[in-house]
Amino acid sequence: MVFENKLVAIINKEIEPGVAMNAIAHMTIGLGCSLNKELLKLDDYKNKEGKIYPNISQMPFIILRAKSSEIKKTINSAIEQNIKYGAFVHTMTGGTYQEQIENTAQTSEEELTFYGAVLFGPWEEVSLITKKFSLYR
């Protein structure tokens, strides 16, 4: 099956796996909230006994790795091309969520360490932006 859109996460290859999973979760729930079930190709899966496992995407979700500076460039490319994105930076960890919001507001983009980004948009356009990155392992 060929998909019109592509869903990709790019994770900072220098952060711990637990931090990476946290970043993916936050970015993906935020991006998913701004999209709809049809765009994300979400289906409910049902087992033999009828138990439902809801909202699983038909599309592959590709997880890539990159350096912080490369993630920042990827986000800027997504903005320029009007591709939907989510991002997670170092100031979004530690303390309360209010402190995280305040810390982020007081930090320039140049000072931010990018933990990850998630992109959703036309397959070819997202592929062009992310083709230089390797799979996260």
Account of the protein in words:
The protein has 137 residues and is an alpha+beta fold. It has helices at 17-34, 68-80, 97-105, 123-130, and strands spanning 5-12, 42-46, 52-57, 61-66, 84-89, 114-122, 134-135. It has a five-stranded mixed sheet with strand order 5-6-1-4-7, sandwiched between helices. A two-stranded antiparallel sheet has the order 2-3. A hairpin with a 5-residue loop joins strand 2 (42-46) and strand 3 (52-57). The two termini are 25 Å apart.
Keywords summarizing the entry:
single chain, 137 residues, alpha+beta, 5-stranded mixed sheet, 7 strands, globular
Order of helices and strands: EHEEEHEHEHE
Q: Helix count, per DSSP?
A: 4
Strand order of the largest sheet: 5-6-1-4-7
Uncertain stretches of 5 or more adjacent residues: none
Strand content: 25-35%
Q: What multimeric state do the chains show? A: single chain
What is the tally of beta strands? 7
